[in-house]
Amino acid sequence: MKLNLANRLTILRIFMIPVFMIFLLNKIPYGVPIAAFIFILAALTDTLDGYIARKRNQVTTLGKFIDPLADKLLVSAALISLVQMGELSAWVVVIIISREFTISILRAVAASEGIVIEASWWGKAKTITQIIAIIAILINNFPFSYIGFPFDQIMVLLAVVFTIISGVDYLKLNMHILTKE
């Protein structure tokens, strides 16, 4: 099977996850800033691979599977690592990962019925706020820390709010799939 550029970028994102974690969780000089840079690059590949796939009309079944998987793996790895480092409360991660499992299972059930659940505006807002929150924590709330503004914590709370709203929205709009006999 020949992989198109979009799928290669997605696979690259998956391979960046352990590299990100090595720099983040080990006592490597400048490890956390390097990890932050890797995380930002990985997050950018998400935007880029989707753009390339649509622009070149190269949306594939493999891409539909591995792109959301790569996103969930990247965000989950970062969140769990931040809990291990004492930079993030576990309850935040439990809410976010619970939503991801729930909606992934909903999508799988829908797919088994031949139904595709498209990403909603709330889902995209959720992803963006999660990524911004993670980056803000990784860079120690720079530059806001100089003025005592808790941007990182505000973004974490926004990410939780958007996570809950998007999860409820997906369930509300698609409950008919789960209640179908």
Summed up, the helix count is 6
Largest sheet, described in full?
Answer: none
Beta fraction of the residues? under 5%
The helicity comes to over 70%
What is the total tally of β strands? Answer: 0
* Shape, per Cα inertia axes: globular
Question: TL;DR?
Answer:
By secondary structure, this protein is mainly α. The protein has six helices and no strands.
Write a structural description.
There is one protein chain. The protein has 181 residues and is mainly alpha-helical. The chain has two domains: 1-87, no CATH class; 88-181, no CATH class. It has six helices and no strands. The chain has helices at 5-25, 31-55, 61-84, 90-112, 121-138, 151-178. It is globular and about 55 Å long. The mean pLDDT is 94. It catalyses: a CDP-1,2-diacyl-sn-glycerol + sn-glycerol 3-phosphate = a 1,2-diacyl-sn-glycero-3-phospho-(1'-sn-glycero-3'-phosphate) + CMP + H(+). It is a multi-pass membrane protein. Its main location: membrane. It is an enzyme of class 2 (transferase). It comes from Tindallia californiensis.
Task: Describe how the helices and strands are arranged.
Blueprint: H1 5-25, H2 31-55, H3 61-84, H4 90-112, H5 121-138, H6 151-178
